[in-house]
Amino acid sequence: MLTTDAVSIVDHKIRVIESARGIIYLVGPIQLPVKLDEGETIFQWYCWLLCKEKLDDAAQIIKKLSAIDLAEMQQSSVLVYGDFEQAEEAWIRMHSICHTGDIFGSKRCDCGYQLHESMRMIVEKGTGALFYLANHEGRGIGLFSKAMAYLLQEQGYDTVEANVELGFVDDARNYGDAIRVLKSLRAKPVSLITNNPKKLDALQAAGLDVTARIPLWGDRSEHNERYLDTKINRSGHIAASACPNE
Fold first, then answer.
1. Is 10 exposed, middle or buried (0-12, 13-18, 19+ CB in 10 A)?
2. What is the H or E stretch that residue 17 is in?
3. Sheet holding 39-51, edge to edge
4. Which of 93, 139, 173, 186 is catalytic?
5. Which of 171, 177, 180, 186 is catalytic?
6. How far apart are CA 214 and CA 206, in angstroms?
7. Cβ atoms of residues 197 and 236 within 8 Å
8. Helix-strand-coil split of the chain, %, nearest 5
9. Per-residue pLDDT of the chain (246 residues; tens, 9 = 90+)
10. 180 included as an active-site residue
11. Omega of the bond prior to 29 within 30 degrees of 0, cis?
């Protein structure tokens, strides 16, 4: 049963962001204690949901969400550290979900390493945000299609070839919603943690002031060597040797 207490608690924690594809509902901040190395760090957690219709208030949003199966849908998150809105400098990471690497620790990619290393970098910097993009699995092809792409890779295809062979483009990711959320949380310049110039281009094309690109390479092994080389040779990622501070 919907109570006035529930409505009053969440009402001031929901932001409504207009999008060309619908309405983005951003809920937060919520304190999230995270184990990082041997210590504990407090992040401020936000989650967002894209809906086709605009709901007038928190009561309508709660009723709507309880009537649909959100567990079957993808929702993205952002972890904010420090005074993200007002600090003069802030580092951000646009991280694409990787079920196998982030959760299971797979060594077929470097995603798990990049996720946790970027969190450490943001904490060390003092201010920043990690955007965890749930509809980016397999560079936007989804988890089931990614599993099929892995089967092709085991037979000699590289990452790009496997995606294309299955009827997808090399990279189907879109950063539009994440950029809208970023703009609602911070108006000042940011530095982007990435090796991928396409992410940098997407932010700059949206009018964001990106003052620097922070490279993030590491965790190379026999299991992901070809994957990392394909990122550079086929997908345009900037090699570690091309990074002046590495």
1. middle
2. strand 14-19
3. 14-19, 22-36, 39-51, 76-81, 128-133, 91-96, 190-193, 210-214
4. 173
5. 171
6. 19
7. yes
8. 40, 25, 35
9. 455 677 777 778 888 898 888 889 888 898 888 888 888 899 999 988 888 877 777 777 777 776 676 666 788 999 999 999 999 999 999 999 999 999 989 888 889 999 999 999 999 999 999 999 998 998 888 888 888 888 888 888 888 888 888 888 888 889 999 999 999 999 999 999 999 998 999 999 999 999 999 998 877 888 888 877 887 887 778 887 654 443
10. no
11. yes
Tell me which residue of 100, 107, 93, 144 sits closest to 226, measured CA to CA.
107
The CATH number covering residue 98 comes to: 3.40.50.10990
Cα–Cα distance for residue pair 40/172, rounded to 1 Å:
35
Residue 91 sits in which domain range? 4-242
pTM above 0.90, yes or no: no
Q: Structure tokens of 201?
A: 């281009």
241 residue type, one letter: S
Distance CA 168, CA 138 (A): 11
**How many domains does the chain divide into?**
1
Both tokens assigned to 216: 């993030």
Active site residue 173: yes
